[in-house]
Structures are given as C-alpha cells and as structure tokens.
Amino acid sequence: MDDKKIFEEMVNILKVYTKDTTLLEKATLDTHILNDLKVNSARLVDVIIKCEDVFGISVDDDEADKIRTIGDAVRIVKQKLG
Amino acid sequence: MRKRVVVTGMGVAAPNAHGLDDFEKALREGRSGIRFQPLLEELKFGCQIAGIPENFDEIRKNYFDREKLMSINDNIGYASVSAVDAWTDAGFSIPDSTDDNVDWDTGVIAGSGIGGMDTIAQSVVPMVNEGRVRRLGSRIVEQVMNSGTSARIGGLIGAGNKVTSNSSACSTGNEAVIDALWRIRMGLAKRMIAGGSEGASPYIWGGFDAMRVMCRKFNDNPAAGSRPLSASACGFVPGSGGAMLLLEELETALARGARIYAEIIGGYVNSGGQRMGGSMTAPNPEGVKRCIRAAVADAGIDPGRVDAINGHLTATYADPMEVKNWAEALERTPDNFPYINATKSLIGHCLGAAGAIESVASVLQVYRGFVHPSINSDDVHPDIAPYAAKIPQTCVEFPELKYLAKAGFGFGDVNSCIIFKKWEEE
C-alpha cells in the first residue's frame, strides 16, 4: 500500500473523531491530530484500534505514543505493512 | 424564604410513545407499550413480554452526531434524548459543542436503577475474560459509570451547576425530581434537569425473573400482562425508557415568559428501615405513610385536598397494601378517595425510569385536566373492591384536578412522594 493510500485511509478513520470534518479536507501529513483536528485525546486509543483493524496490523503502546501527526501514523503503518 | 419551583419542560421516551404529544395521546387512549420479546423466549425467561421504546435507534440518530452515538448505550440514549426534548420544550436551545459558555445556574440529576448493564454484559465481561482489555477502547467507562447519564446531559447543555446521578431502585426517578426541587428551593440552582432512565436488557431483567416477581402468565397476550390493582395481577412486566423534567425557579420562569406545566409544591423521601414488616424487597407500611404525609405537609395542604394519585402500583401483591396506605395517610375512605391510576399498566415497570416517566404522566394529567385509564384492572383486587369506582377504566376528563400525589417505592424499603399542583396565573 502506498503512502497516498494509507494517508487516505487515515483521513477516513479520523472522520468519526473529528468534530469539524472540513478540517480534514485540507489535512496533510503534517496535520497534528490533537491540535489541528481537535480530536479528543481520550479517543486516540480508538483511532489506534481502528488502524489495527483497517490495516490488519498490531501497534504496541510505545509506537502509539509516538503518533502525533497523520504523517507519524502513515510512517508506522507503512513500516508495519513492510 | 424558599424558592417556588415549577416544571417548564419535559421529555419522554416511553414504551408506548416518544414525545409529549404522542405520550398524552397514549395515556388518554390507554395504549399499551407491552410487546412480546422473542429474545426473552430464546433465553428461557419466565416473562417474555416487556415495554421497550419503539424505533429508538432511528430516533436517537436525529439527536446526536456519529461521534456521540458511539458512546451512547440504551440507558444513556433514553436519558439524553429525553433531556434534549425537555430542554428544548422549555424554550432553550442546545448549544453548539464549540460554544465555550457554561450555564452555572443549571444542573442535572439523572438517575438509573441498574444502569449500563448492556455495555457491561456485551462488551466489558466477554472482552476482559478473553484477555482483550486493550480492545475495549475509550468509550466503556463513560457508559458504565453510574453518572454516565448526567455526565452526557451536562455536556450537551453546558451545565455548570450540580451534575450527578442518583440511584434508589424503583424510587430513583421520583427521588431525582425531589432532590432537584430542594436544590432550587434552597437557591443553589435556578434550573435542574431531573429524571431517570433504564436500558432494555435481559441482563437487567434476569435477576427479577429469577425472583419470580415478573409476570409469567401473559406471554400470549402482552397488552394484558401489566395488571396493577387487578385480582389477576401476577407480577410486574419489565419496562425501559427515560424521562426528564426541567424544574425551574418560578421567578426566572416568569421573567422569561416560560410556559408552566405545573408547580411542585411538596416532596419527601424516606426509608422504612427494613423493619416493621419492611425488608429489602417489601415496604414498611409505616414508612410509606410517613413519606406521603410528609410530602403533603411539605406542600402545605390538607390531605383531603389531593384530587388524584399516580401510584407506584406495579402489579404485585403489594398493590392492595399500597391503596390502604394511601387511604390512611390521606385520611380518606372509599367514598372520598381520590382517583388512583397506575401508569405501569401501560408501560410496565421501567425501574429507574419509572418515577420519571410517571411524573411526566402526572404533570400532563394536571396540566391538561384528565386522569388516564388504569388498564387491565377491570377485575379489581377483592381487597380493594370498595375503591373500584376511583380506578378509571377509561379516560376521565377532570378539569378541576388541582393536586396530584405521585409516589414511588423501591427495593431497600425506600419511598418517595411528590405533590404536583396545577399552575394558575396569580
């Protein structure tokens, strides 16, 4: 799966957790999930679970803690998918 | 001087109706919300009928965004939809979640008898037992914590006053209204959303079925199953749903020109102490009578002035005793006994939501001047035969209805009584 496809899937996953979904229309790899998209920090665990389901991967706690931007998530997913 | 308290908004999600207009119609028609439940048959319940609000999954989609819907179980859904309805019915609007203003004068008391049992049974227990704790995600705690309903409602309206959830078994809904009444009376809040809710779940009802206190003889005739006051009553029919009332300080209600449904002039809660015939499951008659008398005294009226009673009346052996307790507490005889009805005859026993839904029924009756039929009681229990004429079999138009007493009793020998008064311009 290429970066673009992973990015699109991430945006799709984040739609449920982003109150103002128009923010996702101009999202980039540098978009900060909490600060820019205003996702409730408590919901990050749900975003990780959804990523695991969508991409068929397993993300451990240390890796999850490093995800700040959409780009961080894309890099980890790509690495896992090999 | 204590503040006067009025009801300016109501919301209801009942087994026989959603919304005030349809609920009033259902009350007047004597429309039953009790239906056969295939799931209970599959699970080998003795009682296979129940009252569950219809089409509720669709209804709540109109109230909340996808993000909120993911953490709203049955119990919280019934409570939240009712709260939104009550709040908007009172003339307020639901603020946008980006609106940073806090309403410091408004609070919430929203109780449940059992609470988020469906979430516990369907998610927490299996996933924890399978070693999949991590997969529970972030949405479990807010759905299973006892204050899950009040917390959700508080966030929806930006309530900055007391936000809590009470629990006193089947007295919960009444107790919430009474606690809210006192808070406003004391000048600690100007408005309180108060009420109760209960989910529809075999995991909630299983314990009652095992106790053999639920109706087992009407699985083939659900609408006839809930039979308070009847000689053929054979246990309560489980119900579910929610209702919220917006209680408001009279002064602010008048100042903003709000429509006033009724004034709450009295309320009292107590316990029979599980003594003198009372137990975990049975009421001490002395406790019941003291509670009713104290509510009437709090209202400052003569007990002879009560025009109608909306009883607790569940369709168990306790109904005749309840009627006699009312008669003694209000110093009435069969000849001058007030009208008495059981909303549970239409919706079943909604446990933690019962007092709240039935309080909405009570206020509607006071506001519109009628007494709804207490269905399935045409064969009145022989112990209370002399009172039969006071148990409406069809809707009674009663424009003179001024004072209505609403009671609720619960496991733990807990009691509650509210006195509603018709609002009259002064």
Number of separate helices of chain B: 15
Helical fraction of chain A: 55-70%
Radius of gyration of chain B: 20 Å
Q: Kindly give the count of domains of chain A.
A: 1
Largest sheet of chain A: none
- Total beta strands of chain B: 15
Q: What's the CATH class label of chain A? A: Mainly Alpha
Query: Can you give the helix content of chain B as a percent range?
Result: 25-40%
Along the chain, the helix and strand elements of chain A come as HHHHH
Estimate the mean pLDDT confidence of chain A.
94
What is the overall silhouette of chain A?
Answer: globular
Number of domains of chain B: 2
Helix-strand category of chain B? alpha/beta
Judging by the overall fold, what is the CATH architecture of the largest domain in chain B?
Answer: 3-Layer(aba) Sandwich
What is the CATH superfamily of the largest domain in chain B? Answer: Thiolase/Chalcone synthase
Task: Summarize the structure in words.
The complex is a heterodimer of chains A (82) and B (426). Chain A has 82 residues and is mostly helical. Chain A has a single domain (3-81), classed as Orthogonal Bundle (Non-ribosomal Peptide Synthetase Peptidyl Carrier Protein, Chain A). Chain A has helices at residues 3-15, 22-25, 44-55, 61-65, 70-81. In chain A, helix 1 crosses helix 3 and helix 1 crosses helix 5 (70-81). The mean pLDDT of chain A is 94. Chain B is α/β, with parallel strands linked by helices and 426 residues long. Chain B has two domains: 5-255, Thiolase/Chalcone synthase (Peroxisomal Thiolase, Chain A, domain 1), CATH 3.40.47.10; 269-422, 3-Layer(aba) Sandwich (Peroxisomal Thiolase, Chain A, domain 1). Chain B is 34% helix and 19% strand. Chain B is built from 15 helices and 15 strands. Chain B has helices spanning 20-29, 38-42, 56-61, 66-69, 74-89, 117-129, 141-144, 148-157, 172-185, 202-210, 250-255, 285-299, 318-329, 344-347, 354-368; strands spanning 5-14, 17-18, 34-36, 49-51, 106-112, 163-164, 191-198, 241-249, 262-271, 308-310, 339-341, 370-371, 396-397, 403-410, 414-422. The chains are: A mainly alpha (82), B alpha/beta (426). Chains A and B meet through helix 3 of A and loops of B.
